[in-house]
Amino acid sequence: MPSSFRIVVAADDTLASHHAVAFAIDLCSKIAESELQVIHAVGLNPPGTSLLGSLDRTSNLEIQKDAQTTARSLRQVLPEGTEVILKESYEPVQNIISEFVNENPPNMLVIGSSNRTGLER
């Protein structure tokens, strides 16, 4: 049995990301035996080493709460059975996405553009 064509889309709550998700959903519907995964990467503030550490922890709680809200919003527009992967780390988002893609190479990666530099090969 042939393996499925795996499409991964990196998503957040930006307009560019919404377009990327819509594109990936449409593309997946046109490719037989395809599978769609959505990764929502969240860069947390590094643990504080000073008196401001408690502020960083509070900020991270808000960041994590927003990430959960975004993941729920994504699940509402995705086809049933689409896996939403929430990855959190104390590093930049582009590094989180790169690491995920390198560890789990998809057949295709879809990312919306926000005119920023980002992923490297």
Count of individual beta strands: 4
Which structural class do you get from the secondary structure elements?
alpha/beta
Low-confidence stretches: none
First and last CA, distance:
31 Å
Average pLDDT, rounded to a whole number, is 87
Beta content comes to: 15-25%
Shape: elongated
Radius of gyration: 16 Å
Domain UspA: 6-121
Protein name: UspA domain-containing protein
Describe it.
The chain is α/β, with parallel strands linked by helices and 121 residues long. It has a single domain, classed as 3-Layer(aba) Sandwich (Rossmann fold). Helices cover 43% and strands 22% of the residues. The chain has helices spanning 15-30, 53-77, 93-103; strands spanning 5-10, 34-43, 83-89, 108-111. The chain has a 4-stranded parallel sheet.
Features:
alpha/beta, Rossmann fold, UspA, Rossmann-like_a/b/a_fold, UspA domain-containing protein
Secondary structure: elements and pairs:
Layout: E1 5-10, H1 15-30, E2 34-43, H2 53-77, E3 83-89, H3 93-103, E4 108-111
Task: Give the structure's gist in a few sentences.
This is UspA domain-containing protein. The protein is α/β, with parallel strands linked by helices.
